[in-house]
Structures are given as C-alpha cells and as structure tokens.
Specification:
By secondary structure, the chain is α+β, with helices and mostly antiparallel strands. The chain contains 15 helices and 19 strands. The chain has 3 domains: 91 residues, Rossmann fold; 62 residues, 2-Layer Sandwich (Dna Ligase, domain 1); 236 residues, 2-Layer Sandwich (D-amino Acid Aminotransferase, Chain A, domain 1), CATH 3.30.470.20. The chain is globular.
Length: 436
C-alpha cells in the first residue's frame, strides 16, 4: 500500500465518531483518498469532526438499524468506530448487519472492552498483570490494609473516567461509588495500585499474524495524595524495556491472541513496570489518540491507522511486507509531548505555529477548541490533555532538546489571559533527562 498516493480514492467511509479527536482519523482517511461521512446523535456544533467530514448526519450510533440504512443508502464501502470503547460492540453489530468488513467479531470486541474478562485471559496465559479483588471482598472489608493503595475503575470505562485510588477502606467505599457513576454495566475492577514507571505497547494484526509495532515509555505526572491520580505528560520510544518484553511477554501475548482467533486490527496495551516486568492493566482494541502511528510510519515505513482504514473499506490490512516492516526496535527516537491544563475556558493557544516548524515535528493537535470549557469534573481525566505534539529525532539528545523547546513554546490561555497549563507537569525538568 503506497501511503503517499490515494489508493482508496472514490470509496466512502462512515465514521461513528464526531468528537474533535476524530478529526485526525478524517485527515488520514482524506490522505488515502476516502470520502468521509460522520454520524452520531449530536449537532455539528457538538461534534466538531462533522465540519471536517465530506458529509455528516445526525443518526445515533446506538440505533443499529438506522445506521445500517444510512450506510446502504449512501453506498459506503466501510465503517469505522472512533476512540470510545463504548461504541465498539455496536460498530461490530452494524458491520455484520450491513455486510461490511469489521476487523473483529462482536464477541472479540466485547472481550477486549471488558476489563474483568481480558484480565482473566491474561492470567490464563501467564501475561503479567495486576492483582485484582472482587467487589464482595472490597465491601466486606476483607482486603488487608497492607494491600492498599488500590485503584478502582469501571470495567467498561475509558479515557480515565471514573478511576480513583483508595488509600484506606473508607476511601474504597467512595471510590466504588465514583466508578459506578461512570459504568454502564455497574461492573467494577479493583486492583492493587503499584506506583512506578509506565509504558504502552502497540500491536498490529494481519491475517492472523501478530506484530509488536512500537513500545514507548509513558511518563506520568503524579498529582499527589490529595488528588490521587496520574496523567501522562510525555511518551518516548523505543522503551528500554522492549528487549525483555519481546523475549518474555510478547510470545505469551501471541499465544493468547491466537487462542481467541484475533485476525486483524490494531491494539494498545498500557502497563506498569514492576521489578523490570511490564504488567498490563488496560487494553484497547481500537485506535488511540496518542498518534503513535505517525512515529511508526516515519521510522518503520507503515502506518497502522492507514491499515485499519484500508481494512474498513476493502477487508484487507493492505501492507504485504508487514513482517519485514514491523520493527519495534527501530532506528531513531519518537516522542509525544502532552500538555495538561486545569479546568476553565480556553481563550487562546500560543506557540503552536512555532512548534509545528521545529525539525522532526510530525503533528501538533489540540483537543479543546478556543471558547470550549473543560469542566471541574475533568480533573484526573485524559481530556485534561489540551495539546499533543508528535515528533521524531535521530538522537536521544535531539529528542530531549525538542521536548524541552516544545514545553517552553506552548501555552494555553483562558479567557482572562491566565495560563491554564499546569506548570509543574511539563518537560523538561527531570522528565527530559529520563526519556528512555
């Protein structure tokens, strides 16, 4: 698949996501020549991606029959969901009803959007993960005090919504209530919290073959005991943990994926590093807004998001030499700088044009429009990331310098002219010194 041409020109893609983040999917689809239609139940003002699409409709993605009718009426060649786990099972049902390609079955998607079920699968195949406890153990007080702190999250959640850390039994009761508020199924995951370094592994699947495409360190900011959560402020690739992961963990993951007949698509696995071992705690069988696919394309010569789009409209992932190209131990270095902001109304972004001109910068994106408000309940959620800058460098020193320059240049002002950027969360500091 020639990513510099328009190999899919003339085909129509129906995207089931109108969020601002989905614009990056639309941009990639346009680069491939696709005609993009966006639908959800919101107005265009509520779903900014609709303005970036070629056409848009106000048909709810939860109405399977209505979306199927829309797809057939408009002559779409394929359908793709966006960034939310919530709509993935519905997406698979729509594809099945419409007779269009879907990279996974309904059962496979339900498995990998249910934290309890996939953790059981991880345990079965010896893939390191975090120790977990039942709600019954939590509410009865049977969890020993020595096992605290615990992290509590909705089984069907995403975007860090509904997640909190409990230091005591009293905190645990409050955390269970928060998680239930963000769960459609009222199913809760309780794990032992192991503070430490984090990483994310990205997989790409093609015709039943499983490939690690990238592993990078996930640099977290700890907001302290009063707020009790952490959010990413940067990512750097390749991770120093990669060789050990490829030798000890990846073969078990491959065995696990083959057991549930995973054939095509892309997947990310987030994890904590404990005693030098990557412990998976979150999985997404979908695209993620970290835009790692840009790094993979620049350093390895293929693009996982483009492959997913190709599959959506053709039924093929479209890269015949993936086995040769999938080189997670790539030459060069990739990074993502994520700028966190406090709640408030965005008045103006500053420095983005200058950042876009820096050598090696591949993408500069914002998640909040000017005039848009991040509410107080946004604390501790990934929507606090207002700016993402993706780039590459030939050397680790060059990467450090770029990350520091980006942090110096970018600012987000509120409507009163005050900076919304949480000052102590941005590189460089010690973060730029430990990017690997």
């Amino acid at each position: 698949m020639d990513l510099n041409s328009k190999p899919l020109a003339g085909k129509k893609l129906l995207l089931l996501d109108g969020s601002r983040k989905a614009i990056e999917i639309i941009d990639e689809a346009h680069r491939l020549g696709l005609h993009v239609i966006v639908t959800d139940y919101n107005t265009p003002e509520q779903s900014p991606a609709k303005f970036a699409a070629d056409e848009h409709f106000q048909v709810s993605t939860s109405d399977v029959a209505a979306v199927v009718e829309l797809a057939q009426r408009e002559g779409v060649s394929g359908i793709l969901a966006g960034f939310s786990d919530r709509w993935l099972p519905t997406y698979a049902e729509i594809c099945a009803e419409a007779g269009l390609p879907c990279y996974a079955t309904v059962d496979q998607i339900k498995l990998f959007t249910d934290k309890k079920r996939y953790k059981e699968l991880l345990h079965e195949f010896g893939v390191p993960t975090l120790r977990n406890y039942s709600v019954e153990e939590a509410t009865s007080g049977d969890i020993p005090a020595a096992e605290f702190p615990l992290i509590i999250k909705p089984s069907d959640g995403s975007g860090s919504r509904g997640i909190s850390i409990a230091q005591t039994q009293t905190d645990l009761e409050d955390s269970l209530a928060v998680a239930r508020d963000y769960s459609w199924t009222q199913d809760i995951v309780i794990e032992r919290f192991m503070p430490g370094e984090e990483a994310t592994v990205y997989w790409v699947f093609q015709d039943g073959e499983c490939h690690v495409c990238l592993m990078w360190n996930r640099h977290m900011h700890d907001f302290g005991p009063d707020l009790q959560y952490r959010l990413p402020v940067a990512y750097s690739s390749p991770s120093s943990l990669l060789p050990r992961y490829l030798e000890e963990v990846a073969p078990r993951v491959v065995e696990m994926m083959k057991s549930v007949e995973i054939t095509n698509g892309i997947m990310f696995m987030q994890g904590l590093i404990h005693d030098g071992v990557f412990h998976t705690y979150d999985i997404g069988y979908r695209v993620t807004p970290t835009q790692e696919y840009r790094i993979v394309e620049q350093l390895c010569g293929y693009n996982p998001l483009a492959m997913l789009l190709h599959f959506a409209v053709t039924g093929s992932m479209g890269v015949p030499e993936l086995g040769r190209l999938a080189r997670p131990c790539h030459d060069g270095f990739g990074y993502n700088v994520s700028i966190l902001v406090r709640p408030g109304t965005v008045g103006e972004y500053q420095g983005l044009d200058a950042v876009a001109q820096l050598p090696g910068v591949l993408s500069v994106g914002t998640s909040l429009s000017e005039g848009e408000t991040l509410p107080e309940e946004g604390w501790g959620q990934l929507r606090q990331i207002a700016v993402r800058v993706i780039g590459v460098s030939d050397t680790v020193d060059g990467m450090r310098e770029s990350m520091a320059t980006i942090a110096d240049l970018v600012d987000v002002k509120d409507t009163s002219g005050e900076s919304m950027v949480i000052a102590d969360t941005v590189p460089p500091g010690d973060l730029a010194e430990r990017v690997l």
